Each structure stands twice: as C-alpha cells, then as structure tokens.
Amino acid sequence: MVVPETSTTLLRDLAHDSKNARWGEFVERYRPMMEAFLRERFPSVESDDIIQETLIAIWRILPAWRYSPDEKGSFHNYLTGILRKKAMRAAIKKEKYRERALARASHEQEGVNARDCDEQSWQRSVFEIALKQLLADDSVNNRTREVFRRVAVNGEKPEDVALSFGISRNAVDQMKSRMMARLKKLVGALNEVNGGGYEK
Hints:
The chain is mainly α. It contains eight helices and no strands.
C-alpha cells in the first residue's frame, strides 16, 4: 500500500473551505491508498460505500482538525483509523446477517428461541472477524502468528508445534496466551464499535 505524502496546504485549504475545488485533488491523492487498505484488510466489504462514508467523515472533521508536521504520517494514520472503523462496522453487519439467516433456518427446526439464536450468531460473527483481523495484523511476529494459527485455529498439539519450530512447549503456551489476550481485546472493540451487541 503506497502512502501519499501529506500536503499541509491541501489540508489547510480544505479545512478553511468545505466547498474548495481541491477536494478532487484530495480524493485523487488518497483514494488509491484507501482502496488498497480495504482490499488487504476487508475484502468482503463494498469499498466504494466505505470510502464515501470516510470522505464524508473527513469533510466534517477537517475544519476542527489540526495537522502537526512533526508527526510524520499522522494524517495517514488518522484517515485509515476512520476507514478501519467504518469497514469493521460494515463487515460485522454483513457477517451478522449472513450468520443470522443460516442459524435461524437451522434452529427454528429445532425449536430454539430466536433471540438466543441471534445472540449466538452475533458472537460467532464478531469472533470470526476479530480472528481475521488478528491474523492479518502486520505487527504480529510471523512465528507467533503461525504458532497461534496451528495450535488455536487448526487444533494441532502444542508439543508437535513446539518441535516443528524448535522451541519449548512453554514458549508455545506463552505465544498462544498473548494472542488470545489480543483476540479478546479485538472482540471487545468490535462489540463497542457496534454499540455493545447485536441489533435486536
């Protein structure tokens, strides 16, 4: 993903005039980066809709936002932060409705309460999305990611995984524990993004 160089004059012009003609320049500069980010992290969402929502959010925020040249890449981080939040919300809703439809069709035949079914579908959707985000996180060490994937996702024996990586069983357990803690935080963040739970 290519990160465009931040233009302080561009941001200043847009902040001072919401109808400035340079909005076209802003979109041309940042849209390729946003499209690449969504393709890599959120391939299942409708990128055009997410980008449009993000641009509207930026349009509303810029007049009160101040860019500090000393913080290299701060605007890029700020922009992708908004983009990530909106994409996460869209991904949750898409997965939730898909899971809800499947679960209802199955559980109704078994006489399971529809509300319980919705809650189960919601939590399953959130967990799956959080897991995908964790495994795609560039800040996670490659070995830690693979150890976690093999033990926690694939269900392989920790002893076998430790042997294949030439590390101790205790090291495998520690890696899994750290990753599970991060996964729990992601699940909590996803629930918070959507207001704390599934939509009734």
